[in-house]
Amino acid sequence: MSGHSKWATIKHKKGAADKARGKLFAKLARQIEVAARAGGGDIDTNATLRTMVQKAKAAQMTKDGIDRAIKRGTGESDATNYESIVYEGYAPGGVALMVEVLTDNRNRAASDIRSIFSKFGGSLAEPGAVSWQFTRRGVVLVDGSIDEDSAMTAALEAGADDVTRDGEAWRILTDPSVVWDVKDALEASGTVVLAAESTMVSTTTVDVGDVADARNILRIVDALEDNDDVQDVFANFDIEESLMQEVG
Fold first, then answer.
1. Which end of the chain is more exposed for a tag (fewer CB within 10 A), N or C?
2. What angle do CA 55, 108, 134 make, to 5 degrees?
3. Taking a C-beta distance cutoff of 8 angstroms, is the pair 199, 140 a contact?
4. How far apart are CA 63 and CA 219, in angstroms?
5. Separation CA 200–CA 53 (nearest Å)
6. In CATH, what class is 7-73?
């Protein structure tokens, strides 16, 4: 779940990922395979593949697993042909959602995504209905206990664009192509990095204050992320930590 700012919801994402590491690795392998098929297996000349490999390494995916995925993508071993699709829709409360999918069965994927939205009070939208609100950015979250000057200095020296307060953390924005380089530079400077990702950041934010809406939004996101075809879910909601705790 990406694209919203409250650290509480990013912790929610991290917890879900930790519980389903095997599923996470399978999705990362699919992304690596598709990137290698599109641009070749050399990370020095294939920027997309380099980003996917760095993402996999950050998730502690094994070198063997990464190499196998690259070989499938370059045709050195059996591979599945995946189609990339982006679904757009709305969750309760007018929250915008973008869902990135890699699938070998378009009809199955469309049916699954539509069913998830419908089950929890959401609805699919036409292409372009919500995507205009999102821009690809690199986001790094660092320890919020350091003072603002230290956070700003460390971020700018690492090559970041902007630093803002985000609950318990500092939220650092970068160009998506250098997010992992910025993460490494911050860690090398002694800054504690809590999370890093290339994600879609929304230009507008929906503050969710209703318990029922919050519960159904998180149920939609969880169900989407649990789907094997879904690679990432981007949303534009903020849920305060106190409400997150009430929702459970």
1. C
2. 45
3. no
4. 33
5. 19
6. mainly alpha
DSSP 8-state class, residue 227: S
CATH homologous superfamily, domain 133-202: YebC, transcriptional regulation domain (3.30.70.980)
* CA atoms of 237 and 231, how far apart (whole Å): 19
pLDDT tens, residue by residue, 22-72: 788 888 999 999 999 999 999 889 988 988 898 888 888 999 999 999 999
DSSP letter, residue 2 = B
d(CA 214, CA 207): 10
Quickly state the pLDDT bin for 180 (edges 50, 70, 90).
confident
Q: 72: buried, middle or exposed (CB in 10 Å: 19+, 13-18, 0-12)?
A: buried
The residue type at 168: E
* pLDDT tens digits, one per residue of 80-96: 788 999 999 999 999 99
Domain range annotation of the chain: 7-73, 83-132+205-247, 133-202
Cβ 57 vs Cβ 29: under 8 Å: no
| The CATH homologous superfamily of the domain defined by 83-132+205-247 | YebC, transcriptional regulation domain (3.30.70.980)
Q: Within a 10 A sphere around the Cβ of 176, how many other Cβ atoms?
A: 18
The length of the chain, given as a count of residues: 248
Among 90-94, 128-132, 173-177, 241-245, the minimum mean pLDDT is found in 241-245
Assess whether the region 7-73 and the region 133-202 belong to the same CATH fold: no
Torsion angle defined by CA atoms of residues 233, 15, 198 and 157, in that order, rounded to the nearest 10 degrees: 150
